[in-house]
UniProtKB/TrEMBL annotation:
This is O-antigen/teichoic acid export membrane protein. Keywords: Membrane, Transmembrane, Transmembrane helix. PANTHER family: LOCUS PUTATIVE PROTEIN 1-RELATED (PTHR43424:SF1). It comes from Lactobacillus colini. The chain crosses the membrane at residues 7-26, 46-63, 84-106, 140-158, 164-183, 246-266, 287-307, 327-345, 352-372, 378-399, 411-429, 435-457.
């Protein structure tokens, strides 16, 4: 039950972290217009490269290392401060690199310096520690409060197309404050350590191993926006960003399992219980498959109507882009289980690195011809194909460690259920009057159709859900 509770906490925060800008984006898209939205997306894509240097693979590494030693408070305390020292030094190096970059980059300087607050915030991010000890309550509650405050600030202060810089500052400061609120709790969770016994550099090379996949991941997360801004227009970067925001909201419900399961699996690995590790993996893969198929088909079915209704006039290209990008929901869900929940806890860093590097290489190769030919939609197809290549590579890597038959046992049932749901909802979306009430009805119909189909096809997850409900009832 602890895993379920942590999953719900993490889902809650991940959804809130994306839903706040989604709530505000309906307002911001109209106030800042596509040009202002595009400037934010483009400049943020650039600052993310420096944030990547500052993070240095610490998110996954720190989470895993804390999980390994969390039953020994002294070792855990030493590990925390050693990792945090490295992170602070890397943030300073990243900021110095940014300052050098700004000596040569004369474009949109005020926006870029506003974005640099996000880089400062990285030094104070210790959410990886709470993930390692499986205490998601602290990060969720504190960051949720800050996110809500930032939403209020946007509605109060952002009033015209000239407020782009102020908008960037509000978002960045909310991230910084959210990270700072985590620090008061840390001193209650750690023992005192002597600085002379700390050896931070022993973590550097293992971090560097995980830094490479983060670089690769960042390539096809940010490079598309950067290249769209350079090759097409900054407005296209904004379109990509807004499509990506909605897809990432859906993905948060799925990938939250990765953050929760990584320390759980890592702890089981540390105890040598590989039978339990594989059992958790099969259940997790089945769960994300059951959830991601309807999310993929559902978002694709309503995207053409949802975008203009939500973002307003001028954002019509986002609809078809989102329909294309919805495919990555399933691909990232699967690669999250295989990579984050299996390869990383087993310390198979090289295989994990190779998989995301393959995706980055595919993305780089395809980006130029596809963006040149189809612009925004070319960038979307490049993203989709990249994510497919990551998942295929990881499946190839685990072929001798895991059973493909066990992984995909009920996958066809979820696919058929999702396809039937898509056909019905898409037909409703195209033929019925476009309104929020009608869209809500379409979502409700989609959920009912999918659930009924899964029950008819007797997917194993139905029995697991019944068992979980009965356990909760008996406990009460």
């Amino acid at each position: 039950m602890k895993v379920v509770k942590n999953y719900l906490y993490n889902v809650g925060y991940q959804v809130l972290a994306i839903i706040v800008p989604l709530i505000t984006s309906a307002y911001v898209s109209r106030v800042l217009r596509p040009e202002g939205v595009g400037v934010n997306a483009f400049t943020n894509s650039i600052i993310q490269y420096f944030i990547l240097i500052a993070n240095m693979g610490i998110g996954y590494y720190g989470n895993r290392q804390i999980a390994y030693v969390r039953e020994n408070k002294q070792k855990m305390s030493e590990a925390f401060w050693e990792i945090q020292i490295v992170k602070t030094i890397m943030t300073l190096i990243a900021f110095l690199s940014f300052e050098i970059f700004m000596l040569f980059y004369a474009r949109q300087t005020s926006y870029m310096w506003a974005q640099s607050i996000n880089l400062v915030a990285v030094a104070f991010d210790i959410s990886w520690f709470y993930a390692g000890v499986e205490n998601f309550r602290v990060t969720v509650l504190k960051n949720s409060f800050v996110k809500i405050l930032s939403m209020v600030a946007i509605f109060i202060f952002i009033k015209s197309p000239q407020d782009v810089t102020l908008y960037i500052i509000v978002l960045a400061i909310s991230t910084l404050i959210g990270n700072l609120t985590l620090w008061p709790n840390i001193f209650h969770d750690l023992s005192k350590v002597k600085v002379k016994y700390l050896d931070p550099w022993k973590h550097f090379l293992p971090m560097a191993e995980l830094f490479i996949p983060q670089i690769a991941t960042q390539v096809y997360v940010q490079l598309n926006k950067t290249m769209l801004g350079g090759m097409v227009s900054e407005t296209s970067s904004g379109y990509y960003q807004y499509s990506d925001n909605l897809v990432k909201l859906i993905l948060a419900l799925v990938t939250a399992t990765g953050t929760v399961m990584l320390p759980h699996v890592a702890n089981a690995v540390a105890k040598g219980n590989m039978k339990r590790v594989n059992k958790m993996l099969y259940k997790s893969f089945d769960f994300v498959s059951a959830v991601s198929y309807p999310m993929m088909f559902g978002l694709a079915a309503i995207s053409l109507t949802l975008v203009p209704k939500y973002y307003g006039p001028g954002y019509e290209p986002v609809g078809p882009a989102m329909m294309i990008e919805s495919i990555v929901i399933l691909m990232i869900a699967w690669s999250n289980v295989l990579g984050v929940q299996y390869l990383l806890p087993l310390n198979r860093n090289k295989e994990f690195t190779a998989s995301v590097t393959a995706g980055a290489v595919v993305n780089i190769i395809l980006n130029i011809p596809l963006i040149h030919t189809w612009g925004l939609y070319g960038a979307m197809w490049s993203t989709v194909i990249s994510e497919i290549s990551v998942t295929v590579y990881q499946l190839f890597v685990v072929r001798k460690m895991l059973s493909w038959k066990a992984l995909f046992k009920d996958s066809w049932k979820y696919f058929v259920s999702g396809l039937v749901m898509f056909a019905i909802v898409f037909a409703m979306n195209r033929k019925l009057t476009s309104s929020w009430l009608m869209m809500g009805l379409e979502v409700l119909v989609g959920i009912v159709v999918y659930c009924v189909m899964v029950i008819i096809l007797r997917a194993e997850i139905v029995g697991q859900a019944k068992k979980l409900v009965m356990t909760r009832i008996l406990k009460k």
